[in-house]
Amino acid sequence: MEITTNASINGDILLKVKDLKISFKTDEGVITAVDGVNFFVKRGQTLGLVGESGSGKSVSTWAIMRLLPKTAIIDKDSSIEFLRRDGEIVDITKLKPNGREIRDIRGGEAALIFQEPMSSFSPVYTVGNQIMEAILTHRPVSKKEAQEIAVDLLDRVGIPNPRQRFKQYSFELSGGMRQRAMIAVALSSNPSLLIADEPTTALDVTIQAQVLELMKELQEEFGMAIIFITHNLGVIAQIANEIAVMYLGGIVERGPRREIFHNPKHPYTINLLHAIPRIGKGQGQRLVAIEGQIPSPLDRPPGCRFHTRCQEMIPGRCNVDVPKITQVGNNHTVNCFLYEN
Amino acid sequence: MVSFLIQRIIGMVITMFFVSIIVFIIMELPPGDYAERWAFRKFSGTGTQITEADINNIRAEYGLDRPAWERYLNWIGGIVTRGDFGEAFAFQTSVNNVIGQKIWLTLAILFSTLIVTYLIAIPVGIYAAVRRRSVADYTLTVFSYLGLALPNFLLALLLLYITVTVFDSSVGGLFSPEYKDAPWSMAKVVDLLKHLIVPAVVLAWSATALQLQTVRATMSDEINKLSVTAARARGISERKLMLKYPARLAINPVAGSIGFDINRIFSELPIVALVLGLPELGELLIRSYLDLDMFVAGAILLLLTFIIVVMNFFSDILLLILDPRIKLEGR
Ligand SMILES: Nc1ncnc2c1ncn2[C@@H]1O[C@H](COP(=O)(O)OP(=O)(O)OP(=O)(O)O)[C@@H](O)[C@H]1O
Ligand SMILES: [Mg+2]
After folding, report:
1. How many structural domains comprise chain A?
2. pTM of the predicted protein model
3. Residue A308 backbone dihedrals phi, psi, to 5 degrees
């Protein structure tokens, strides 16, 4: 059976993450944070990554830019293949941690925006200084030109009075403005991949909608692919072409948006969809409506990682063996014994 | 910014006013006054009978019989309007003559100590934080605890011993004998600098150990800030990243505690000066107390606090420049 995640990186595939396993050295020993993560991102498309807090969304995406702390170990059998602008394919896991090549990719071809717009700018330099830094690092322009580009970008992301904002510090801007400024930084070198790690979670609902709208517009204009991370399925429904659902360090189901929303297979995904807060009841609400506790990553259950909370658990199977990736529809896969064979 | 500066300068003047009153009270505290001391010293053992009238004459001569507030006004008035700190009775000359050179040498010791402290503590603290949990980091930590534990007069003796036996040079005092009374020249300055090394190292020892830990701790915190990861995500090199973001913030607490460091240096200075035979103010202060030479004592106390107050002001301005958040809060 042909499994979609095995599609080799060519044509329209920009990024392919294969068998990603990441552990952390801690005082209590080595903790495996994510294990067996497989996904790919197509050029110019949006992959939505959903899952509860601690499921490993940040860890697996920060690894794409090698931004994890020094205590993180990426398994040697993992690979993250990225299509460079010049057509070359690099395995990011094999690059030198802060070497030339990864630095060219960071900010130049792949950019990251964070959940907390308040702390993603340094308080001792102006917003303009930090945007110009990104531009000057990757583009062969003079300081003066960089300044013009920066002001243009601020204008482009919908910041009023860009020339004045340029000279201000991040703490003088509102939360929504900061996140817009962060997007401006991310787009400064016209990256082919934008990783948005819960970019709207910290914002209030109206601002959330505006930022989301802006990101969609910018994607059309700049044509970059987006990995959009969120707890909020309501948000993902508006922006993603494909969705991957994470649970306890692994992807349990992935497929096109329509499939995931209308034809979910994994009991966890089905649960998640039931847990979507109703419109008007606070969209930022976290997904907590699933029964049982998330197991600690220190003692991850054997077998299927979800079996401790699964209502359809098959004793002797789910708690013993690990389910494989199973194709359940066009481009739709699930890791669940209910669908194997 | 300007209003902040004016505010701080007014604050400094008020502080110095209260300090001067306290200093004046301290000057008045010891029992007996200079007139009695002077009479005792001059006539003891000569068999001369000293009458109350004689002592009163001496008092009148030096204005010691005036009421306290009048003496205070005379004293402070002279300092503020003419820079005249009064008479040094025991030396039969003006306080300015007695203190003159010593204040400059004290400042030289002070600044060389500060320079040594920051020149070591800041880069090494930053390095230790960047290489956290490495052998270098642990070694530095052990050394800095040693620095905190070792009494500095002991270190002074040790360095004195080493320099005399190994390098065969004279480290006592601040000048070699041939320059001691020579007029100022380039060679004399070089000689002074050479002699400043040992006292500066001794006095910087514990401050460096402490500040190194402060820098390391702040730097370690700053390195993990999201804004640093965000900057790294822009692709800038690790060296530039470290220097531009966390290191810039790691020096703030150091800049903010310059006054504190000076305070400590001044309190450690007398004993170190005693061991190393340095001609500085601390030792003179003790002597002037023993002699009840109150104008000398008052002048020294006033000058030392003045230095601390001015340096605190300087430290505030430095923080203002380093951290824009402070500047904007005041708007
Ligand atoms: N520096 C670290 N050291 C040790 N464990 C870590 C570290 N960073 C993350 N982890 C662990 O990795 C797991 C996944 O964390 P991650 O931050 O990727 O979750 P997430 O899905 O992004 O959650 P959230 O929605 O809260 O952001 C968690 O169990 C977490 O405890
Ligand atoms: Mg996260």
Report:
1. 1
2. 0.83
3. -65, -20
